[in-house]
Structure formats: C-alpha cells, structure tokens
Amino acid sequence: MRKFLFSSSLLILAAAQAHAAPEAAPAPDAMGGDIIVTAQKREQRITDVPMSISAYGSGFLDQIGGTELSKISAITPGFVIQLQDKFAPGFSVRGITSNEFSPQAEQRVAVFQDGVAVVQTASAYGELFDIDRVEVEKGPQSTLHGRSALNGGVSIFQKRPTDDLSVELKAGGGNYDYYSLQGVVNLPVSDTLGIRFGALKRKRDGFVKDSDGRGTYNALDAQAYRFAGKWEPTSDFSFNLIATYDVDDTKGGVPFKSRTFLPLDQATGAVVGDLRFWTPTHLDTFGTLPSPYFHREIVGISGTADWRLNDRLSFTSISGYRWFDACQSGDNDGTPTNLIAYHQCNDGKQYSEELRLNFKDVGIFEGFIGGSVFHANNGMSMEMGYDERAMALLLGGTLQNLAPRGLTNAEINALLGPAANVLKAFQLDQQITGAKITTYDIFADVTAHLTDRLELFAGARATWDKKDLTLQGLTPLGPSSLTGGGLLLQPTPGNAVLTGSNSSSNVTGRAGLRFKLTPDVNLYAVYGIGKRPEVLQLNPTTPAQLIPTETLKSAEAGVKFRLLGGRLVGDASVYHYEYENFQTLGLKDGIVATVNAGKADATGFEAQLSYELTPGISVFGSYGYNHARFRAGLYDGNMFRNSPDHKFAIGGNFAAPLKGGTVAFAPLYSWQSKMFFFEDNDRLDLQQRVPAAYSDRVVDEFQNGYGLLSARITFTPRDKKWSFALVGDNLTDKKFLVDAGNTGDYFGIPTFIAGSRRTYRAEFGVTF
Question: Residue 110: what pLDDT?
Fold first, then answer.
C-alpha cells in the first residue's frame, strides 16, 4: 500500500510539472513554502534538503496565531507536544518522547535556541516572541546536531537586525482575563552595525477554577526580553549576538484532578465538585511547603561569527551560554485532602563552543568538518510532603476502598483513633541531585555532487562524555513514623552525599542520496543512526545503576516538490526505525525506577502541502501516520506514549480587498487519533499491584481522538501601518486531556490534567 501511494505521488508530481505555469513569485511564508532553512548547517531551500523537515516563518506564524510551540506541533506531522505546563513539557517526534528532569538526563528530542542546545526539560518551553522561523527536523539528527537529537529536534531562530529603522507595537486582550503587550525596535546604528530589542508581557487565568472561588490552575504570567546585534565590518565577516531573558511567575499550580475521589470541603465534609477533569476543585500544599506556584527565569546567549576565507572556504563559530532556575510546588494527589504535595526546583548553567570549517566547490564536494565542547552544571531538589495519618490509610489500601467520596483529614484522624496521635501531620522527604557534564565532539558531513542531478552525502559524529554525579537523600523533619526512613523518597545512609562518575563514548552517522527528478522535484533516501548515551543513575539505598545506551536505526525515503512557479510546495516521505533499550519508568520491587522496555519499532508516512490558488488565497495541509509499537517484554504490542497513530491538519488564508485595506480569514483545524500517556497503555494486566488496592481498575488514562478548530480574522489598511485581528483557539470548546496517571497512579489514584479551553482575543498592532 505504501509503495502504491509513493508511486502514485510521483506520477501526480510529474504530470503537474509537465503543465507547470511560468515562473512566479512564491506564496509569501506559506506553510513550508519556499522557506530557507539551515538544517544541514548551510542555507538551503527546504525542498532541497534531503530529510523530513517542517519549517515556519514569522509571517505564517502570525497568520495562524502561532504564539505557542503547541500550535506548531498541531500542524506538524510526527510532532506532538504534551503541554502539562511550561515546567514539564513533553516533546515527541515520531513517537519518541523526551521530558526527563534528572540533571544528568539526555533528552531524546533536542531543542535549540539560535544554534545552542537546550538540554534541560524545565527550560525547554519558552515564549515564541520576535521569531524569524521554527524548524522541526525528524529522524536521527545526532550527526548534524549532536547531543539530545536522537530522533529529531526543534530549532528556534530569533529575528536579526535589518537595515530599516522600525518600531512595532502590539496589544491584545481576551477571555480568561487575558492581555498581552509587546514592542520591538529595530535600529540601524551604522552601515556595519545594527541592533534589535523587544519586550513582551502576557497574562491569563487558568482553565480550571478553584472551587473556593479564589483562583485558577495553570495560569500564565510571562515576560520575555530579546536583544539582537549584528556587526558586519567587511563583506567577508559578520557577527551576530542574540540574548534572551524569560520570566514566568504564576500562582495556583498544575490542575492535577482526581477522578477517584470527589472534592470535599475540609471544614464541613460537603462535596464541592465532581470527578470531571475540567471542573473546579481545590488543590493546595500544606506543612512547610510553599503555596502552589511556578517561578522560572531563563537567560540565553548565542554568538555566531561567520568568516569567509575565500570562494571555497568559510569558518563558523557558535558560542553559547544558558542559565536557568525553575521552581514549582503543588498538590499532586489531586484532592483537597492533605495526602501528598511537592516542591521541585531545577537549575542549570551551561557553556558551549562549536567551531566549523565549511567548504564548497572543492571538486565535486561541499560540506563541513568541526568540533565542539559542552559543559553543564545541573541540579535538582525534590521535596515530597505527606500527612502520615492520611498516608497510613493510603499505603494500607483502606483509603482507596472509600472512593468516590473519600475522607477529609478530620475524618481520617477519627477513623484512626488513638493511632493518629503517634503519626505526623507533616512528614518531609527530600532528594538533592547534581550533575557536572563535559562533552567533546568531532564531526563531519560531506556531499558529493556526482552529476547535475545526483548527489550522495554522508556524515559522522564521535562524542566523548563525562558525568560526575551527586545524590543526597534527607528527611529534614526526622524519619517517618510509618517507615523509620522516607516514604516515597528514601534518605541516603547517614544523610551522606553519594558520588559517582561515568565516562562514555559513541559514534553516530548518516548516509543518503538526493536525485533531481526534475529541476523542481527531488527524491531522497537517508539512513541514520542516533544514540542516547549510557547514563549512571545513583540510588539512595541500592547500588548505582548504569542505564544502557539507547540506539535508533532509521531509514527514510521521500519526495519534495516545488511546482507551478512555486505556488505548490510540498513533500511526502515513508520511514521505518528500530529502537533498542528503550528506557521508561515503572514499579520495580514496589519502587518507582527506570525500567528497560527493550525493543521497539515504527513505520510511518508523512506529507505536507502548501498551495497558493490565486494571489491572496492559499491552503495548506499535513498528514502523519506513525505505527510505533514495543516489540518485547511486558509492553510488547503497546503504543508509545504521546504518540497517536494518525494526525492531520488543514487550513488556509483567504484575503480580499475591503474599502481602505485588506481583510484576511485564516481558519485551521487539527486532529489526532487516540493517544496514551504511559507505555503500559493503562492495561489492566499491567495495573495489578501489591497490595491490590494499588491496582488501577479503570482504563481511562488516555485521550480519544479529537480535533481543535482555530481561526484568525485580520484587517490591514493599504499603507500597512496598523492592523486589527480577532483570534480564536479551540473554538468548539473541546474538553481534552494533556496528561493522566502521574504520582497517584502508583497507588491506584491517578490524576488528570485538562488541556486548554476555548479562548478568544483581540489584537491591535502599529508599525512606525
């Protein structure tokens, strides 16, 4: 069937090319369009890049109201973002998800900010503000991009200074008390120097209300500041400096909602809500833990120097610095009863330097050779707080059997009787971990132009990695009266700081070909190997564990085309990959630990199309099929988490003249099929635990197929000095989940996190 689809696509493209219209200007910034990308570390038209890639420029992002990476994932085949919140986003490419928090963790899907790797999950999801373009590359990209690009990456590029003096101001307001303010100034200081700076403020209430009427959960309160400088003293040398600063500061926490226990008023015992994941509840911390909040600061600096040595050789240097500090607290048992609460802080500081010699027209060859060094110092502090009296009933299996009403804390104490007096109202476990990481890479990638129509390419990267780890487990308020140690986090012997060190090396590579069927139709095939290096994991009470290298072997073939004078642009590809040593979390001897799920594979098809029917009227669409399954062990036959089998999007932009200007209507509909949130797929046979009360007896930790409709209507006058827009997202107010299970799932009381609801806003912008 796939062979038939692929062959049919070629016949259609050949026919379209035969009847192609004369060369015309391409649709500006259409989906994919004729956009220039740098996926292979050189500027190329997207249709000339022999890999599966989706790219979106600033104009297209404005058209669809793309102020969030999650909106980009909705239209990109093979790309899913699980946005629990900014602290814990999950990036998934072709079924492989990455959202680990441990300081030494290697992500499976890379995020890059202006060429600099973002290696820690808690700092990966920032504000899309003053963006030039976003590139989503799929398949093994370790050869081109190094660390954390085992199965793809997301590259975000800020706008650079231009030669024109300009000021852009925009303000917006909408439901959920939303408002935004932003401004950008572009200043050409001289013929050789230009600067650009901007500021953004966005705020919005959360989508789940507090049943006490005093707040919401998953609110937004963000600030972002951007600076870009460009210096070109000669025609052969340029230096670009980009600095970003993001701040998030919200109250209320994440809307972990229990569908096991009804929300209870703790004073009266009255039921104050229901079990639906989107309706009001009351969640709070207790004891010494801070009230629910999220605070994060991120500083990113990227300096890129390009030096043209002669017509054939050039030199590139990319220097990077990134610092972040992120803290969050919340109630993760999902009920108003004091059971379990948490306070987590992650921080990191990293430096990187990449040096690259680029060459072209050296005989039939072009490409690059280079090296890089990366150093990071990451830390994490996790505090878990408990009411021991409630935990006594939970750990004993009594509380679960009292669902759906459950008990208030006062009722729990009464049920325990005199035993409640010997248990603590608040117990605290803490684990402090750290990792110092140093990585050295050498890499090369070469393309050989054998004929005017055929090119071969191959590349490799060798990586040497050293990680020094620390782990300290504490019970700051003394040992638990229930266990004599910790409850869910165990102390290290004598509260000692455990240390460990591990060095590893690996080699990744890629090879392929590109064939020009016609000047505007390219065929390509590529085979790549990606690796996630082995990781040493320290444990407080058991020996250190060496997590083995994860290996991905992927084959892909596709076609890319640019027809009808550039008005019709698209691509289609098929792929198959095999995975070894897939690591996930699970219960091991009653303890949450890393579990090797073994082998997995995936077969898929992806397609994108952008078509300008007439000037001012364009349509676009995408489709992705990804059959990703485990092939061994307990999870044999299961779907990957956050990985729908089917995903598509369709949209357009319809502009028409109106008195004094132009009105444009841009609808967008995206849909994805059923998706699980954990590798066990909530199977009942994998949910049987000891004691039996910990077992999850309901199969509900998934999201059925659903679609989201959004639209943007814009009026722009003829002089384009200002614009007014109305923007709506999730216009049908679809109620959907972004996560399920979480900490409570290990005790038979899973929690659920609601996705965004219907939002609408008005935006007014002026340009000077």
Answer: 84
